[in-house]
Structures are given as C-alpha cells and as structure tokens.
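ok so heres the complex, two chains, lmk if somethin looks off
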Amino acid sequence: MNFTITKNRQKPKWLLLLLFIMLIQIHANAQSVNIAGNVTDETGQALPGVNVKVKGTTIGAATDANGKYTLRLDNSRFTLIFSYLGYVTQEIPVNGQTFIDVKMVADPKSLKEVVVIGYGTQKRENVTDAITTVKASEFNNGNINDPITLIEGKVAGLAISRSGGSDPNALADFQLRGPSTVFGGSTQPLLVIDGVPGGDLEMIAPQDIASIDVLKDASASSIYGARASGGVIIVTTKKGKPGTSTITYDGTLSTDLISKNYQVLDASQYLALAKQYKKKVKNEKANTNWFDELTRTPVNTTHNLAINGGDAKTTYYASVDYKNLEGLDLVNTRRFVEGHARVNTKALNDKLNFTVEFTNSFDNKNFGNSGNIAQTLNMNPTFPVYNPDGTYYQNPGDYNLQTNPVASELLNTNNDIEKRFQGTADISYDIFSGFKANVNYNTRREDYLNSQYASSQDFLQSSSGENGTAYRNEYNITDNVVQGTLSYDKQIKKHSFNLVAGYSYQDTFDDSFYAGNNNFPSDATLYYNLGAGQALTDFTLANRGGVVMGSSATENQLESFFGRVIYNYDEKYLFKASIRRDGSSKLAAGHKFANFYGASAGWVISKENFLQDNKTIKFLKLRGSYGTTGNEQGLIEYQSLYLLNRMYTGDAEGLTFPQDGYIGNGTTGTWVPSYGPTNNTNPDLEWETQRQIDIGLDFSLFHDSWLTGTIDVYDKRINNLLGTFSAQVPSNIFSSIYANAGSFQDRGIELALNATFVKNSKFTWMSSFTAAYNKNKVLSLSSSEFHGSAESYGSIDGANYAYRLAPGEPTAEFYGRVFAGFAKDGSWLFRNAAGQAVPDGQLNPATDYKYLGSGLPTTNLSFTNTFRYGNFDASIMLRSALGFKAFNAKRLIHENLGQITRTNFFTSVVNDPNTLVKNADQTFSSYYLENGDYMKIDNLSIGYTIPMKQGSSIKRLRVSFIAQNLFTFTGFSGVDPEQAPLSTSIDSNPNDEGLSNPGIEPLYNYYPATRTLSLGLSATF
Amino acid sequence: MKKIKFFTKPKLLLGLVMLTAAAIGVVSCNKVNEHVYSQITTSNFFQTASQVESAYVQPYSFIATHIYQVHFALAEFATDEAVCPERYGYIDQDGMWNRLHQHNWTTDDAWIATEWNDMYQAIGYANYFIDAIQNVDVSKMDLPVSKAQMIAEAKMIRDLHYYWLLDEFGNVPIVEHIGVVNPPTVARADVYAYLVKDINANMPQLSHKGDANWYGHFTQEAAHALLAKIYLNAQVFTGTQQYAACITECDAIINSGKFSLDATWDAPFLAHNENSAENIFVVPFDSQHAIGFNAAQQQIHWDEAPPKYGISDGWAKVVSQESFYDLYAKNDLRINQWLVGPQTYVDQTTGKTEPVIDDDGNQLTLTPQIQSLGEDGADNAYSGAANVKYQIEYGIYNMNNDLVVFRLGDIMDMKAECEMRQNGGVATADAVGLVNQVRARSFKPGAIGSTYTTATLTLDELLDERGREFSYEMKRREDMIRFGHFNDAWWEKPATDKHYELYPIPYSATTGNSALKQNPGY
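and the predicted structre for the whole thing:
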C-alpha cells in the first residue's frame, strides 16, 4: 500500500508541478497584453513586411499584406521597435496601449536602401560610385510640370533650371557636374526610365515616380557607355504592393503671380523723353500698358489618381494623371492626360518574373508666341490696342517692328497634339540559384501634330497678301530597344560576387510630313481644311508663301555589348568593374565602334576593428573610381556624307523661291533646278570620349547616425569634343562643320549633408544641405578637322558675339570689348591693350578684346529643412548659384536712345538718366555685364494631415499649401538671373525660343519671373 | 557533372529558349550602318543627265545669291558713290554701312567675314562639282555641254571668285579641292599669276557667245574680259603693269565681232536685257526662278515704292552721295538714273499723273543733298538721290534684270585707259575715240560737252567718266584704288590710310587657320 501510496504521492507531485507551471502560465496570461496596429508609410499606404520587435527580446512579428500586426506581450512596459528597409527605425513604448498605429518615415539617406545602378541594384553601403538617390518622400511639392524639377536642389552637382519660368510648355534644363559638350552636342544626362535608356520624361506623371537615382561619376555611368557623358538619371516608377487595394488621390490648384517684371515708360514719360532728346516719335494719343493687355492670372489644376495592390504572386499599379495648366499670356495652355499601368507576376515556382508596363499620354498644348511678351516692351505706349471701330490698331508703314502683340496673340493659332506611348515587357528567369536571365523589350512611339493658323486679319498676313495661312506638321518617333542580360550572384563565405553580361540594340526612326496653304476664304476652317486655301491652285496670286509640302525620315541604330563584375569581401572591401562596347550608325565608316569602361573600389573603414563600436563614426566609406564614357545623344545623323539639296532663297517679303540655274541662249532656254551640297562632310567623325576620376567619402556620424553625408571630388576630361565648330574656310564650303575638336575639363567638389536634429513621435526636424563647386576649363580646340585657336559664339543680334571658347578659359566665357566710358558725343569708348580709352573703330579685336567672366555659375548651393509637428508638416528649400556673370541683353535695346522709334524704354532711363545710352550702337561690352549671383526661396510647403477616425473609409487626408520660386535675392537687372545651364546646345542665335545660353537673358525672349502658389489635397482610401 | 544535371531540367530549357529568342532578335537587326531615307547624297545623285545638269548649274546659281548682297556693299559703300545714311534714328546693320563709308572697319566686322565666306563657298561648290563629276560616266547621258566644258566653266567660276578675292583681300589661300587642311596665305602676286595661268589653260574648253547655252555662262569672251580686268589692275596687284596684255584681251573681245554697243545708255540694264548686244557676262535673275536682285526695294523711298512701282516695301537704304550725283552734267542723259525732286506717279487705273505723298502729307521731294551720315537730331527722311539705273517693272521687287558683270562699254574704256597709261597718262586719239563712242549715246547729238578731246580726257576725268558710266556696277572701289583716290577724304569720310585698300582677313578665318597671314595694317 505504502508503495502504492508512495507511487501515488509521487504522481501528484508531477501533476502539482504541472499544475503549478500551468497556473503560473495562466497567471502570466492574465498579466499579458495583446497589441495590434496598422503600419503605413507617410502617404497612408499599408506597409507589409515591417519588422516589429520587442526591445531587448527575440520576440517579434512582421506586418501582413495589409500592414497589420499583432503581438502578445506579458506586460506593457516593453518598447516596440519598428524597422523596415529604407525607413527610419522607430521605437515606441507600449505604455499600456493595445493599438499602436505606426507611420513609417522614409529614411532618405538610409544606408540599407537599394540603389539602382543600371542593369541591377546594389545596397547603398556597398556602392563604390558617386550615386545619389532621391525617394518620392523627398520630392519637391507643388505644381510640378516637368518631373525633373522634383529633384531640383536635391542632388549636389545636378543643376536644374526653369529658364522658361512658369510657362506650362517650357521644359526645365538640367546638367550634371558642369558642361560636358558645346556646339550642338547634348550635354543632358541620359534618362533611363524603368531600365529603358533614352526615355521621355514628359510622359511620366510625377506622382508615379518612386525614386530617381543620379549616376554622377563615369564609373557608374559607363555601364551606359556611349550615351553617358552627361551622367545618367535613372527614374524608377512605383510598383504595386501586396495587400488590399489602396487608392490615392493627389490634386493641386495653383496660380502664378508675377514676382519680377520689366517696367517700361508710360505714354507721357515716353513722349517727354523724345521731346527732351529732340527725337521725332509717333503719338497716337493712347496710354497703353501693353504687358497688362497681353497677360492674365493663370489658374492651374492637376489631379492624379492611383490604385495599387495585389497578392504574393501578382501586384499591380495603375494611375491616371490630368493636368490643366495656363500660361501668363492669353493663349498659352497645356492639357495633359496620362494613363499608366504596371503588372508584375511570378510563375513557375516564383522562378519566372514577368512585368508588363504601359504608359500612354495625350498632350494638348497651345502656344502663344513668346515673342509677343517681348514685343510688349517694344510697343510705343501711345499706340492703342484697338481702333475706335473695334479692329486691332496697327502702326502703318511698320516694318514688323511694332506690330500689335495682342492682335498677333489672338489672331494666330499654334498648337501641338502630342501622343506618347511606351510599352515594356520584361521577363526574368532564375535558371538556378543566383543565375538569372533577363530579356527586356521596349517600344516607344511619339506622335506630334503641330497645327498653325494665321488669320487673314493678322497684320503680317494682310500686309504680305498671304491672307490666312494654315500649316500642319506630323512628326513621329519610333524607338525600339531590346536588351538581354545574364547575371550571376554568388556568395562564397565572405566573398560576394555579382556578374552581369548583356547586349542591347536600339533603333530609332524619325519621320515627318507637313503641308501648308494660304489665302483661305474663311478663317472658320482654321487648319482643318488645308485644301480650301486658294494659293495652292491659284497660280496668279502674288503671295503663295504659305504653300509648303514635305516629308523626311532619318534612322539611327546603337548596338552595345556590356559586362560588369561586382565583388566585395565581407562588405568591407568593395570592387566593381564594367566594360561596354557601343557602335553607332551616325559615325563615319571605320569609326563606328568604341569601348568604354569603368572601375571603382571602396573600403568601409567603419567595419575595421579600430572603428567598431566607435561612438562618433557609425559608418565611413572611402571610395574611388575611374571610368570612360561617350556622347551619343548629341550626334547628328549622316554628317559623314554629303547631303545634297535643291537651292532655295527666301526674299525680303518672306517668300521662298527656287534658285535655279539658266541653260540657254538668253531668248530660249530653261531654268534647271540647282542641286549642291548643304553641309561640310566629315569622313573622320568619331566618338567624343570622357574620362573621369572620382574620389568620395560616405559617412554617418553620432548617435543614431543623425548626421550623414557624402563628399566627392572629381576631375573629368572630355576629348574629341563633338559639335558644330567653325570650319576652315577655305577649303570647306561652309563656315561650320560637325567635327571632333579639342578637349576640356571639369573639376569640382560636391558635398551633401543630411541631419536629423529631432525625431520623435511629436516633432521631427531634418535638414539637408548640398554644395557643388565646378571649375570648367577648355584645354584645347584643335583636331584633324578643326584647327582653330579660339571661337566666338553666342551671337546676340547677328553681329555681336558674347562668348569666346578658348584654351585656358571656361565655356560660356564672355569676351569682347572693355567699357571705358562715353565720349563727349555719347559714343562708346573702350579700353585698348595699352589701357587707353579709344573709339570702337580703333579697337583691334585680336589684341584689345578681353575675357570678361563666365556665364556659368561655379557654385550651386541648396538648403532644405523639413519639419513635422503632430499633424503639421512643413519644408523650406533655399537654392543659390554663385560665381557668374549675367548679361541682360534687353538693355542693349531698351536703354539705347537710338532705338526710340522702334522700342519703348525701361523706366530705369528716367529714374537714372545715366543708364540711357545716348549716341552709341548696340554693342556688347563689359558695360552690360552684371553679377549674376542669386539666392532663392525656391520651395515652401506647409501641410496638415487631418486626423481620421479608425475605420474611416478615408485612411489619410492631407491638405497643403506650397509656394514655388517665392523670392529671389539678386542684384541682376533682368527678370531672373537663373538661365539655362548649357544643357542643350549653345545656339548660334540665343534669341531662338527655348534656347538660352548661360548668363544671357535673351533679347527677344521674355517670360516674367513668377511665384507659383498652390493648394494641395492628397487622400488615401 | 553539375552542368549536365541542370541542362536536363525543363526549367533550364525555358531559360535557353528565352535567350535564343533574344539572340535571334538581336542577330536579325544588328546593323549600325547609315540608312538614308529622305536624303540625297553624292552616291545616289549624278545618275541621270538632268541630275548632272542640276549639279553643273549650281555654282552659277550661288553667284546670284551673294553678288547683290555683301559683295555689292563692299564694292560700293566704301567709295564716294553710294551711302546708307541713318534714317529715323535707325542705324542699320550694327553701323556697318557707316563704317564702310568712313573706312574704319575692323577684322571682326561680320560683313567682311560674310564676303570671305561667300567667296570660298562659291569656290567650294565649284571644287565639289569638279571632283564629283570626274568619276561620273556621262557617255550615255544626253547633256547640253560636254564634261570637259562643264569642268572648265566650274574652274572659271572659281577663277572669278579668286579674282574678287585678289581684289578685295589680296593675299589669300588657293584651294582646288575640299579637305585641304591649313591652306596657307598666297601672296597677292602669286594669286595673280595663278589666275592668269588657270584662265588661259581653261579658255579653249569654253564655248563662244552665240553658241547654244552660252548666256549667263562663262564663254571664251567672258574669260578674256576677266583676264583683261586682272591685267588692267596688275600694277595694283603685283606692282608691275600689264597694259599691253590688257589691250590684247580687250581686242580679242572688240575684234570678235560678237558684241556692239547698245543704242541707248540704259539698254544693258532693262528688265529684259538678255538681248543686249553689249553684255559679255551677266548673272541671270528671274522673279520666279532666280531671285536675289532687289535693287528697287533697297533704293526706292517707302512712300514712293507702292504708288509708282507697285512694290509694297521700299527701304530707301541705298542713296547716292551728293558729290557723285554732281558729277553728271544736266544734259547727260545718264542723270535720269536718279530720282530727285518732287516725285510723281502715274495712277494705274486713271492713267493720270499724281504727286507721291510723303509721311507728312506733302508731295515727296527727294534731295540729292543728305543732311548727315548719322542723324544728329535731324531726320534724313527725304534725303538722297535714289538710283533706278536697272529698270523697275511695276509690281516686281524680285527683279528680272540680269546683273551685268562684264560689258563691251567697260572693255572699250579699259582699252582706252591702257593706251593713256602707256602714253604717260595722256590721252591718245584712239583712246579718246573709244571713250567718246561709249559716251556718245548719253547725249543728244551735238550736245555741249558730249565729246572729249585728247586735251580734256585726263586720267582724273576718265575716273569721273567711268564713275558716270559704270555707277552701281561694282567697279568704283577697284577704279578708285587704281587711280589713287581711294584714300582721299570725301563727304563724311576723312582721308584714310592706304592699308584700307585691302579688306582684312576676317578674325573668324585667322583664328580657324593659323597658316593665314593678316594683311598689313590690321
């Protein structure tokens, strides 16, 4: 019994123990808490896969597809850590809460983030090149017309300028690390949109962009070889995220207010000035403010609606974008509708990844002639806009000098309908572990239909006898790219390898046709009935100048082979090398192919023992790179062949006639069409090449790495500079040739700092600062085709050149006469080499002209502060450019008394009579050069996120107010010292619309500086 | 081993299929050669007779585009003949008109570069044609002229432009092919020698006046005229006179029997002057096929052009200097080539003569006197005698008149000048006879002062007479230099240095080619 009892006693001991443990557990259960919540990003979108960890334990969970998490804790005194790649890690004490919703804040400079490097990605901490990534959360806000302005002021060394002001049809210019070409070459960075090189940013809605990566050094960009001399900008659009569908809406309502404008004389001031200087001017007795008559206060609206979602296999993202923008002048508008869809799916045990992406956009642009705004400065203020009978007033006997700009604006129609389609199919397959094949096909089609109609009432139409002219031009671009890559990833102990080999073939075909007619019986049919114009059939008409017809086509191909090796040892010693061979159809036979390569290495010093657990230095990486790239973008087709054409001549009335040759005896004979070359050929045309060295330091410092930054120094040299240079005449036929000539250098230093001063759930303050200094220098200008020692360019009025390109000087260097005062009769005196003040006729350009300073800023700065307090957020960006000269070419005319019968004057000539040039030609000299330095309050935004009830159908609602280009501090007399940074080619005539030159505010092009004020609404459902 | 295992897997096959498909796509289009669609190139032209004809006439056509532009300006505005005063406060062409008048142009003046470029563009076109036609088999083509003649004519066009370069710039490079690098400056005397040799070498291949297709092209007679011009100015060009050689060339024309003086002074300049018996070489213009001659537009006053000539735009840019106008005697018929005094027009519908109304509502009255070159407070609205030597057809501003380069009247006066210069500057009976023949038609028979004698025809008088006869024919600058009066002071021009007798090699050319040598004084 005892034995049994004993045994029995023992059992209860076990049971008791078990019971006790259970009781303890029950007790503990009674003490535990269930904590749940939603994790979203800043825009309110659910974030799946966020790590939720209990501090000091191994307990943790991840958010599900809808961003939800649940955790069970045994007490509420724990702290939760929320972490997610690319976002700021947050620590939140539980403090008895059971629902903790967390909004993750993107960490703009997270070292863990993924960097897009072209044909692959890399972890930021392993990157060995100079690459800057800007995430959507950091983008500029407001009325963003051109997506590139999303990152204006965000990337050290990337100068972006909106020289077209708030003109809805003007694109921004941008340039990386100084000019990389002149005279006809494009120096803009290559745009790669979702892996496809040479895309068109104009068809992308800003809200669809997830990130923009800027490949700055040649080692990074050399994977794009021949096209990468200007750097590479990689745009990645948003992908769908697994989870329930999320719908977002973003909208803005904005207007443009004039911030700086030219003031011209009113009628009484104008007449008084004429009287004072005994000049005979017309007085039509009105007092017209021509600028006010031509302009309005524009109203702009933008809407963007996007939906995304999916499951573990398939995700989707689709959006619709609509913009309705107005320009300052009466007719300038842009209406933009775009649809975008992207589907990613996995198959075959997730080995196959398939992506299909479509973008389709419609642009409807109405152009006012920007010359009309400049014309308001020319108009005699005593001229009325309308005659008493309601018709437009026109100055009789006017040689097109003071034609009524309001009439010209309203009696002319000029619009573009632009349709862009882009489709991409991308398949990748994991053949075996780490070995992946990828094929990408992209097609892009852009159709432009330009239509113009000049009313028969228009002054130029009626005076020339054209009596209504209609014109249409259809221009198409068809671009196909096939790219294939094989990649292999392998980790052997601490050795990590990534190998890529690839092939790319691109074919671009442009074709156009156009037709025009004049002498229309009615203005009502505009350009919709070209055949109705009588000029085509009525051969007796004096003016058939509107009758035109033509078509053309060009094609070019680019074939490339490339390969890349990336290696690191323990993420401490980093190495990368790439090679690319590019062949272009545009180059001369025997010169079509060239090789480009890059190599870079990095050392993560902070991983060495001596810096491990350092309290100050959390991360420190030294990297260096060397690479070569080419310039394919600026190449013109067929320049190694003679292109023949029939000779035509335009006459003084604007009519074009064939210039035929006569064969006969005087009385009987024939006129034979003349055909001759139209270009100088260049049988030696070859690649322009660039080589660049870059040394950089990436660091993050202090507690929580609150200060991160990057410093880069670089030296780039461009050889065989491609462009349209002065040709030797003789033996060339023409005075310019498309040639390789000389070399130049850009050297600079860039600094980017990001600081998180305060970061807690109530208040956040982050700052970023960028500074870039670039020194550009021409090293030589000669080659086998071009033998020049120097070259003048940048003609202001057909006679004056503003710049000169010469060894030892930067590009866009002003050059010419040195102002020395005025003679007694008011004529110019200039300084000669001996230091004497002499009249112009005694000046010898070869010895007396001087280099007067560059129009390119040497230094660009930006400083952004963002704040978040509770539901309020705010950001302010300051931007500055320093170290350059600016030339307000309008002063040549509007301060020159000799122009009084054809222009009005700036009020400056009344306020300060010394500014009136009284008896001198419009000659460019140092007299007109001003300091161009400026500082702008470029973007100010204030937002409020309206608190939503849990479970509300609207997950997030934010309203904002944004001011762009709010204020400019500058001493420059023009409307805005910020001119195009030499990103497009230097045009021989800076007065052409859309092209301007660094530091020159053009003579005939004028768009006032405006500040854009916007109200924004964004909502997530 | 591992490889074999993987290759047997179906999923790997899929990968291979993908890669193969990509490779096929790639191979099928991997060409980076230029495909020409809408362009005409040397290799797809020169295939038919009409294409060859089109290339052959092209250098001629180009002359028509530049001769009445900057070339006219440099030949006339730097002399005492024509001027473009400032009007309504408007200084045209960045003041270039005035700098030409006052001889203070610089190496950086755009028009000088334009002239240089125009000359070598014409030479480049000729060189292109000469080289391009060499390898073309024309044997099966029905061409109006032989290949040898086409090449010889192109070379003569080249020589005409080298003559103009010799005259204007003096020391210039000579190129016969495109692609020559760093062509050096050739001394003026050597350019002269090159021309004499080249013209003589090409002469036999040229046609004669009266042959089919001679008009407006380089004939043997035109080549003689060009040689005569070069010999006439040999003293200036080389420092050695060649008057006997000049007379030989003049005689080749005069004695050819193919030319005679027109009956009236203005017959060579009529709108349809193709039947002139006097013209040797002209640049054919046509209001529809070959425009570029817009003398009416340049010269007629804006108030007068519409009612009188049916031309909507008159610029009144080019007017004559008063001193030049005053060279004409009142009874000299050639004075009728000027519009001066109260202006009238014949109404096209009523046939009545009406006054031309000016900007101020009065009858337009043009004065030979010009207040000033610049304005100085006054306006030059109605100043200056306007030239209508070339007949203006009503309503036609792109004129049909063929521009005269060489004509018999000039050849006769040249021969007379040579005889006088060989005679110590004193007129001979033969010289007086030649000049009087040309002059006679400009006066009513027996008019006072209509004929010269060996006593009255001095060299200075011959310069004046050449001025009267060849006004606006782009000869004045060369004549004034040869007679030693180019550097004199006139109207608003001070006496100027001798180095202005040559234009400078343009700044753009010297910086583009280090082998070019600037002319002395610049």
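quick notes: Confidence is low (pLDDT under 50) at residues 1-8 of chain B. thats all i got rn
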